[in-house]
């Protein structure tokens, strides 16, 4: 090709053609940089470019393409390629350049005159003395100069980092001597390669070479290279290879429809890397260690797995980071997933399995999480690792928690490959049945039957099935556990009651807790107690008697006695059962000693059976419930908030009954604290649909009802509270202290003006509380009854509220006492007993503040101010109306309805009615029509 003069060039020099080499993708910018340097050489000055990149990034292809463009621009092109196998051959690269210069024609069709110093002038060995060195260097220089005198010269050296030392010296010798000749040097080198010879890169390239960094191809070019559509698949291919052309070529040869790109690799690539790393000390061993450990590749573990000292390991890591084979991070990993898979594919299967088992052991000994250890154990196949079974089971448990049952199945299937006792195999099969149930529900029953076939010890079998019931606590999971327990019970029944009792006990509780309707008939279950002599069986019998007493709602004393007997031994499983725990804590919240004992039983060192429940969570929740019952709302909320966060981290907020109970308790206590934002936030995180089949859903309905009633949605709140009540009644629950829905439903009904409904609810609540008999529950019911029965004179209401204060005054229920005092003081103030009201309300304010119940304390404080104002102004008029009675009477005389007055003064309609009744009595009138004239008479008398 002939060059043409570019008339627009300020130098009048030749123009540079814009032709591109065929088949080279994504390198236009790099080639533009190189061709942009042609002009300097064509104008008679030497110029250099250095192309650097990772292994396989296409340095050679770019150099070849640049050579083609240079040839088209009129350059004499000589390209030498350094080779690892020829590094020891002195002058190898230099001889290639001389041969290229002396055999290349000056222009197409016209032979170039032979240079005076041909290739044979460069010795095959390094010159032995100074004279030979000078002669050889001069011969090389004269060859290049002679070629440059005939026209521009393009000298390309590929893989300069592998060139022999003598050739490097030759290049350094001529570089500054051709400064004013039309010579262009293009050198390629591995990025990060450390020059260890006598010649530096700058001595060969000149002081200011243009450095071109080759990076991976973009997604568009990756798709074109692989001949696939531009889209997600192309993006994934780019991700696993980094767009490295050499890796893409290996991937293209293996592409098949539906292939798993995360597992794609090439043993050939692994072999090439292993061979190339041999020139660096310990690098091949470290390369394999990094591939084996993957994301777990901490420095200390890498050194141990590779079997080298830390200094050697550090040097190898440093080298591989510099050449971009490893990431530059605290946990170095192979830069591309395809490279890691390739290194692993190059390892013999046995070597890889043994090395993976060694990596697993190192991780286990360093305290790594079971799921990380398990990931390596999955790769250590066909070898026995007895210690791995327990780790794999823990890893499987964690995978289910994280919502990855398929990974759990893999862990457990790997555990079954070990030599196992029949006992352990049965336990693993049950755990596997649960994991498979989430992936393929139809396969789980067959796995349970397989587990039943491995029963070799009745006690252990019953224990394993019991553990399954405790582990699977919600929805379909619970049903799987109950059905499985039935199969075990049928197999164990021949061993007598003692053999099957623990399993029957837990099955009964699971059935009772998972039903929306009444639990199984307790009397049928009771018949199996007679032959039991085992202490643990008698202990659980007491627990079930306590539960039956609670459901009947007949006697707190009997329930507490039975619970105390159940706590007399070491059997934490009974109190870990969600249904049992939920009711037991509601009863024992008023029994400080038994609450402490319960927390000791629950605060065990092992993980809870239920994998949703964090370690120590049950004891923390039990303490929170006791604090709430005692009125220490702030501390109780701290317990609940901490637990809710832990359940959220496990993704179990709506799935686990204990989590639902905890969230519901947080909502309830936040309402009492006046933290409606916290209550709403907790409610928003719950999925009511996911909790429908749970007994604790009743408590959630109760808590939501309280929140709605407190935040301006009384109608919705009332419906929630009544819904909770209907479900509890349908469940056969008559214990009034589990969720005191009647009390709050009655108060909400009053606010809605439904006095008859409120009266009925309050009466039922008081009857149930009197049967149960504990001060906190009885005092709360008396308070509600006092509110409902506040008629015009208030004597009955005051009697009930006074009794509530007396009952609660001797208990630890400080919040219930503050509520009773507030209602009593407000009643006394409404009926003109201002001096008594002030004394009562002072106690109410103090108690409310002590509990942290800000809304209650604020209401008591407002009532206290009104009572004080009323006391000082009561005698300023002859009718003796209180300030509030006077305000209500004046508004009524102006024609406002009770509802309008209530809305204006932020009172309930019932309270407005009470104030009007008091005003009528003091003014000695019979109704609203006489108010205006009665108030006018009073004002005239006052004016006189």
UniProtKB/TrEMBL annotation:
PROSITE patterns: HTH_LUXR_2. Gene3D superfamilies: Tetratricopeptide repeat domain, Winged helix-like DNA-binding domain superfamily/Winged helix DNA-binding domain. Residues 122-131 have a biased composition (Basic and acidic residues). The keyword Transport does not apply. Residues 1-20, 103-132 are annotated as: Disordered. Keywords: ATP-binding, Nucleotide-binding. Transmembrane segments: none annotated. Residues 874-939 form the HTH luxR-type domain. PANTHER family: TESTICULAR SOLUBLE ADENYLYL CYCLASE, TRANSCRIPTIONAL ACTIVATOR DOMAIN. This is AAA family ATPase. It comes from Amycolatopsis speibonae.
């Amino acid at each position: 090709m002939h060059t043409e003069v570019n008339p627009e060039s300020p130098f009048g020099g030749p123009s540079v053609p814009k032709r591109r080499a065929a088949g080279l993708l994504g390198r236009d910018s790099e080639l533009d940089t190189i061709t942009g340097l042609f002009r300097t050489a064509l104008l008679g000055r030497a110029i250099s470019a250095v192309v650097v990149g990772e292994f396989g990034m296409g340095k050679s292809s770019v150099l070849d393409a640049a050579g083609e463009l240079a040839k088209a621009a009129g350059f004499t092109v000589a390209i030498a390629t350094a080779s690892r196998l020829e590094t020891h051959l002195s002058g190898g690269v230099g001889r290639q350049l001389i041969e290229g210069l002396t055999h290349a024609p000056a222009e197409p069709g016209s032979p170039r005159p032979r240079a005076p110093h041909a290739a044979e002038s460069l010795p095959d060995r390094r010159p032995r003395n100074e004279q030979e060195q000078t002669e050889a260097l001069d011969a090389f220089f004269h060859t290049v100069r002679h070629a440059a005198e005939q026209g521009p010269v393009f000298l390309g050296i590929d893989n300069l980092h592998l060139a022999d030392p003598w050739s490097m010296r030759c290049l350094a010798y001529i570089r500054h001597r051709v400064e004013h000749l039309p010579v262009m040097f293009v050198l390629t080198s591995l990025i990060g390669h450390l020059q260890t010879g006598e010649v530096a890169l700058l001595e060969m390239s000149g002081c200011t070479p243009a450095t071109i960094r080759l990076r991976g191809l973009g997604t568009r070019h990756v798709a074109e290279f692989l001949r696939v559509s531009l889209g997600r698949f192309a993006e994934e291919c780019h991700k696993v290879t980094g767009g490295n052309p050499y890796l893409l070529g290996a991937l293209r040869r293996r592409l098949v429809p539906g292939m798993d790109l995360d597992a794609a690799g090439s043993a050939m690539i692994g072999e090439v890397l292993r061979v190339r790393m041999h020139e660096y000390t310990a690098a091949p061993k470290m390369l394999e260690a990094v591939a084996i450990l993957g994301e777990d590749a901490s420095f200390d573990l890498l050194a141990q797995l590779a079997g080298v000292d830390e200094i050697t390991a550090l040097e190898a890591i440093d080298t591989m980071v510099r050449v971009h084979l490893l990431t530059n991070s605290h946990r170095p990993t192979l830069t591309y997933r395809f490279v890691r898979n390739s290194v692993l594919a190059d390892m013999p299967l046995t070597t890889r399995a043994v090395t993976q088992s060694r990596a697993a052991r190192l991780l286990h000994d360093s305290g790594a999480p079971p799921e990380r250890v398990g990931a390596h154990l999955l790769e250590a196949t066909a070898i026995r690792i007895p210690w791995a079974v327990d780790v794999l089971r823990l890893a499987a448990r964690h995978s289910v928690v994280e919502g990855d049952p398929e990974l759990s199945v893999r862990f457990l299937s790997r555990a079954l490959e070990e030599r196992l006792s029949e006992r352990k195999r049965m336990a693993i099969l049950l755990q596997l049945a649960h994991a498979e149930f989430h992936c393929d529900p139809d396969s789980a029953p067959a796995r349970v039957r397989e587990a039943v076939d491995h029963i070799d010890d009745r006690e252990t079998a019953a224990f394993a099935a019991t553990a399954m019931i405790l582990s699977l606590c919600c929805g379909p999971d619970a049903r799987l556990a109950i059905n499985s327990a039935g199969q075990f019970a049928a197999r164990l029944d021949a061993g007598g009651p003692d053999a099957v009792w623990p399993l029957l006990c837990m099955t009964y509780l699971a059935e009772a807790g998972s039903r929306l309707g009444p639990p199984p008939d307790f009397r049928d279950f009771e018949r199996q107690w007679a032959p039991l002599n085992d202490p643990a069986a008698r202990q659980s019998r007491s627990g079930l008697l306590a539960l039956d007493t609670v459901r009947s709602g007949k006697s707190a004393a009997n329930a507490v006695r039975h619970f105390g007997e159940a706590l007399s031994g070491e059997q934490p499983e009974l109190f870990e059962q969600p249904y049992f725990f939920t009711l037991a804590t509601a009863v024992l919240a008023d029994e400080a000693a038994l609450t402490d004992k319960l927390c000791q039983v629950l605060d065990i060192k092992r993980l809870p059976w239920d994998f949703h429940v964090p370690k120590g969570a049950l004891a923390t929740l039990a303490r929170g419930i006791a604090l709430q019952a005692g009125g220490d709302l702030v501390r109780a909320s701290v317990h609940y908030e901490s637990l809710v966060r832990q359940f959220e981290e496990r993704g179990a907020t709506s799935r686990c009954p204990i989590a639902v109970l905890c969230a519901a308790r947080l909502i309830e206590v936040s309402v009492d604290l006046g933290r409606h934002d916290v209550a709403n936030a907790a409610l928003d995180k719950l999925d009511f649909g996911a909790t429908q089949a749970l007994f604790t859903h009743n408590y959630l309905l109760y808590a939501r009802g309280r929140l709605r009633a407190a935040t301006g949605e009384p109608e919705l709140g009332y419906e929630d509270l009544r819904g909770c009540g209907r479900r509890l009644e349908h469940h056969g629950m008559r214990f009034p202290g589990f969720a005191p829905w009647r009390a709050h439903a009655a108060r909400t009904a009053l606010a809605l003006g439904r006095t008859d409904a409120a009266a009925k609810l309050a009466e039922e609540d008081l009857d149930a509380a009197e049967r149960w008999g504990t001060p906190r529950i009885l005092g709360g019911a008396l308070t509600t009854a006092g509110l409902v029965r506040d008629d015009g004179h208030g004597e009955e209401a005051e009697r009930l509220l006074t009794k509530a204060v007396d009952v609660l005054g001797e208990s630890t229920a400080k919040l219930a006492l503050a509520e009773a005092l507030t209602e009593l003081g407000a009643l006394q103030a409404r009926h003109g007993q201002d001096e008594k009201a002030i004394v009562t309300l002072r106690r109410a304010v103090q108690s409310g503040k002590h509990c942290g119940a800000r809304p209650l304390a604020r209401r008591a404080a407002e009532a206290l101010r009104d009572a004080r104002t009323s006391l000082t102004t009561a005698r300023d008029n002859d009718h003796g109306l209180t300030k509030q009675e006077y305000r209500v009477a004046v508004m009524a005389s102006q024609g406002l309805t009770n509802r309008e007055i209530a809305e204006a003064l932020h009172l309930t309609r019932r309270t407005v009615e009470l104030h009007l009744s008091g005003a009528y009595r003091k003014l000695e009138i019979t109704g609203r029509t006489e108010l205006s004239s009665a108030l006018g008479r009073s004002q005239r008398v006052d004016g006189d």
